[in-house]
Design the sequence.
């Protein structure tokens, strides 16, 4: 057992700098490794491979290897990962709202004489 706390257990499973971004990208349907690599340009190939392996091990991603030359590998979300997508959508909305707040703060801090509106 990972933890008695469901929140702690959940965070342990999805912990990783790129895991949620990878899941979000795979959410569009079946995707190949090269497509994922291009969709997330800041992640290294090794890190992407490691995070995909962990996601597969933990039951979030299904990996299918086709016996071709060169080998074709496709990734898709499991039902467990699909149940996480609504939460990622809420996180996206939260991030968009807070990016807007941060831009307003930056605008008023640069202008100097003006003060930010209070709530």
Sequence:
């Amino acid at each position: 057992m990972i933890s008695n706390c469901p929140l702690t257990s959940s965070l342990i499973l999805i912990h990783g700098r790129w895991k949620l971004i990878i899941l979000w990208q795979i959410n569009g349907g079946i995707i190949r490794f090269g497509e994922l690599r291009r969709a997330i340009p800041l992640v290294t190939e090794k890190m992407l491979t490691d995070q995909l392996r962990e996601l597969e091990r933990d039951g979030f991603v299904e990996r299918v290897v086709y016996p071709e030359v060169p080998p074709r590998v496709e990734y898709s979300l499991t039902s467990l990962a699909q149940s996480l997508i609504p939460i990622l959508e809420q996180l996206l909305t939260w991030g968009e709202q807070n990016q807007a707040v941060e831009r307003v703060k930056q605008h008023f801090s640069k202008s100097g004489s003006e003060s930010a509106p209070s709530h």
Remarks:
- The first helix runs from residue 6 to 14.
- The chain is about 55% helix and 10% strand.
- The first strand starts at residue 31 and ends at 32.
